[in-house]
Amino acid sequence: MTSERADYADLPGAAGYGESEAIQKSYLRAGHTLRSWFLTTDHKRIAILYLISVTFFFFVGGAAAALIRADLLTPQGDLLSNEGYNRAFTLHGVIMVWFFLIPSIPTTFGNFLIPLMIGARDLAFPRLNLLSWYIYVLGGLCTIYVLISGGVDTGWTFYTPLSSMFSNGHVVMAATAVFIVGFSSILTGLNFIVTVHKLRCPGMSWGRLPLFVWSHYATSVILVLATPVLSITLALIAAERVFQLGIFDPALGGDPLLYQHLFWFYSHPAVYIMVLPALGVISELITAAARKPIFGYWFVAGSSIAIALLAFLVWGHHMFVAGQSMYASEIFSFLSLAVAVPSGIKVYNWTATLYKGHISLDPPFLFAMGFVGLFVVGGLTGLILAMVAIDVHVHDTYFVVAHFHYIMVGGTVSAFFGALHYWWPKITGRLYNLVWGRVTAVLIFVGFNLTFFPQFILGYLGMPRRYHVYDPHLQVLNDMSSSGAAILAVAYLIPFVYLFYSLRYSPAAPANPWDVTGLEWTVPSPPPKHNFDEIPVVTTKPYNYPVEQKGDGDA
Amino acid sequence: MPDEALHVHEPYQTAAQQAEADTMGMYVFLATEVMLFGGLFAAALMLRTVHHDEVIAASRQLHIWIGTANTVLLLTSSLFVATAVVAARTGTRRLCAGGLIGGAVLGLCFMALKAVEYYSEYREGHLPGFGLPAHFSNGAEHLFMNLYLIATGLHAFHLAVGIVLLLSLAARVLWTSFPLPERSITVTLFGLYWHLVDVIWIFLFPVLYLAR
Amino acid sequence: MMTSFFPLWPVAASEHAHSVDLLVIAFSVLIVALSAPVFILMAWFAVKYRRGKPADRRHPVHRKTWAEVSWSAIPFFLILGFFVWSSVLFYQLYHPPPDALEINVVAKRWMWKFQHPGGQAEINELHVPTGKPVKLLMTSQDVIHSLYLPALRLKQDVLPDRTTTEWFNADKPGTYILTCAEFCGTDHSQMGGRLIVQTPQDYARWLDKSDVGMSLAEQGEALFLKVGCSGCHSPAATVHAPQLQGLYGRQVPLDNGRTVTADDSYIRDSILEPQKDVAAGYPRIMPTFKNVLSEADISKLIAFIKSTPSTGSAHP
């Protein structure tokens, strides 16, 4: 126990053990019944409900990944049958994309923090918030049903005519599950947009919003405008399978490429739904770690909006070899290069923020650094993919798989863990063991690179994706990847131990354990149900850390 | 206007703030509906571009008079609903309920005409899907009718939801102590939804029926 | 480049492949140059400006617009240079030389069928000569597939009811991988084979040895008679139907006022969807042969029509 105290010694104001007064008066203790949790309209409780659900699906999707990497240890498809492998990667994709990545940061940290960050007592539509969780659960149950009853084998992209006319898996049920969970996304986005517009406390102008809020606002715009297109696209597949009302059927003169256009019109912006919140988290973690205002606030805030807008213009880069016109491909290629510019602005600005900062190497910062390393590799390989002539070679290979995992896992999941380690004291009222936090961050970084870097090489060598039978001379690279996956799995499990341990045995957290700016740190940890005793009035810029004038030493 | 009558609830401070938020929420929701139907319009545009002649021929076989009548019905129903909104704001309960019911009834007439139309298409052998016996002169005509059925079916579903909303609101206005004009925002927002369903039809009608 | 432990770089069997490799390496150098400073600086700052460590932190800057604009614009313009390079290479992929050797490809779950113009057919193996442009005319019998030839750095999706093409000029004899790169169902992982690039002499020898009956065009001519095309499309027919000799490449005025070029797609559509683009001055009475002819049959008919000379001759 004494060594634990030492880990927390540098956090100002660490209170004593046991249930602090703050915890007793917090939202966590405001009602003990199941009803008070399952019929709550408190955004903080809903965030916890989401946290539990998305974590559950993360591990279901992770189990599918484990099966995939285990099967890929050998070049023959000897662990899973062909059909089984196809179902494994389809389920992995469907669950990870729609039941983990898209909801992850917005519904947990977004829900919990946005009202606190803008000085409000709740989101604009608290009951709609609860409804969106129930819709998510319903979609999740449908997916579990699909999983148990044999799965679906079309890939998470459901390309026609394979999905509409040939597959004999549970396509319609899977499409229904995703259709349902889409409404959860739409309602969350709707809630955030109205909240940010209408519930900012006095003095909280747009220019004073934390960057976390800006990025969630941009995400919400994508959520509400893109998701309905997915809904109609999935409905069209279901219509073809169930009612024989097909519009993609090539035998009738329909165009399977129309499906691809409709699908990617949503699914490309969707990947920005997955990464924009993460970018917002990292902005917070970097300023907090450096204890210095963000460099170029308006450029960073504006870059989130720019990404959201450009996101809608690049979907055709998934279709360079699909049969679309050369000119369309060239335009999409150009725009895909352009969308990298705002992301680059963020990364350069974070670097500049650290310059002359007061950087502490706590777990949130290490996760942020890991994010930057991995996200940048992912983003740059995205540029490589945007070059049409190169994409002709690496499209539909492991190069693409590596690229998007660097962004979604190396990026978003790292940011998710970073957020968890940063706001854990605020959400739970408990401190946690920082040493273990740092170990996890490093282990994730190492495990991740071992898992996915060899996949760039595999892809360029020509190993297609969705293959579990491969050329034997590729086995060493595949085995490297699978070993990395094992390390990653351990790294993802370790936090369960020390974070749960902290819930019971760690010291209670003060209101502002990291000594940082932000309205959420002005309320007790955990916050009371109504957030603020009095609605705050904001008079200062965001991240208004004291500015160093004399130099030498730190504030 | 006492706040209690408006049931200003957390997290709002004032009724005006709550009303603005509710209105904005409805507009954002309507934007999602536009995107939903947008996918279908994109498909229709593509079909028209690639199979130009067949689509025109297929459109000629739709019952344009039923479609026109339906358009008139919906536009009129929107007029009724708009009247209801104005009545709500001035607190005239009977007129408000009347407008809502009138709009709903016209919506039901639309649905009835639609059913007649589907039935005659079935008799003509032009209604696709569902294992129905249908024959088309070419693939593109079949595709067009598929799209027609999906688009009008989705629209009809939204219309049905609208009818239920209008009737249930009318019931509340007539038979409960639903406070008007304090809670006229609810009538306004339901009215907005109805108008959107109408607007979608205004676009569907030419795309499907006037492609001839 | 192969180390004894694992391969790092795929073999390149054409000039295009070398060009793509050069592009990717050069571009990687640029993007490393643009991003390495980030990693280096972040790590350095984390050490130098560590909390509690004395350092000169006077007058830290919170914004510098010219810096923001330049570090956004300059990398973007540098990247655009590579965009142009990549676009040129891509353009070449869409403009095969006119004298290319045409090979018909039919993809179906889960195999590849190749047919050489002389009628030689192979399954899951594709023999091609070096030094000659080869153009693949591809279609699928069921779902979307994709013919991927990693050694040539090429792939193209293969769609049902449509012909897509890819072309290449291989210059290095050898046996390479040929594989399906668009998920097509159960045995997708096993839908592959070999691309066998041979010197022209070896290729000629292979062609001779191959079991071949008639050439593609000859088989097409037999079909033309057998399924009844010549019943209308011949000088002796009583029905008023367009004569097809020398049709390929001609401009055809349609009855809706447009004019199209009679290419492979046009001929294919005329067989499967005859009502789609009817030649001007002719009645709309041709029936469809959709359920009568397979994809392979259609390729043969197209080959036959292409082989007919422009001036009047004995056939048909």
- Which structural class matches the secondary elements of chain A? mainly alpha
In N-to-C order, the SSE pattern of chain A is HHHHHHHHHHHHHHHHHH
The largest interface is: A-C, 99 and 91 residues
Class computed from helices, strands and strand pairing of chain C: alpha+beta
- Please report the number of helical segments of chain A: 18
How many strand elements of chain C? Answer: 12
Give a brief rundown of this model:
The complex is a heterotrimer of chains A (555), B (212) and C (316). Chain B has 212 residues and is mostly helical. Chain B is 80% helix and 0% strand.
Task: Tag the structure with descriptive keywords.
heterotrimer; A: 555 residues; Cytochrome C Oxidase, Chain A; globular; B: mainly alpha; Four Helix Bundle (Hemerythrin (Met), subunit A)
Architecture overview:
The complex is a heterotrimer of chains A (555), B (212) and C (316). By secondary structure, chain A is mainly α. In chain A, 66% of the residues lie in helices and 0% in strands. Chain A has a single domain, classed as Cytochrome c oxidase-like, subunit I domain (Cytochrome C Oxidase, Chain A), CATH 1.20.210. In chain A, helix 14 runs antiparallel to helix 16. The longest helix of chain A is centred in the N-terminal third of the chain and has 37 residues, at 82-118. The longest helix of chain B has 37 residues, at 139-175. Chain B is elongated. The mean pLDDT of chain B is 92. Chain B is mainly alpha-helical and 212 residues long. In chain B, helix 3 crosses helix 6 (139-175). Chain B has helices at residues 3-6, 15-50, 52-60, 64-90, 93-123, 139-175, 184-209. With 316 residues, chain C is an alpha+beta fold. In chain C, helix 1 packs antiparallel against helix 2 and helix 4 crosses helix 6 (295-307). At the A-C interface, helix 5, helix 7, helix 10, helix 11 and helix 12 of A face helix 1, helix 2, strand 7 and strand 9 of C.
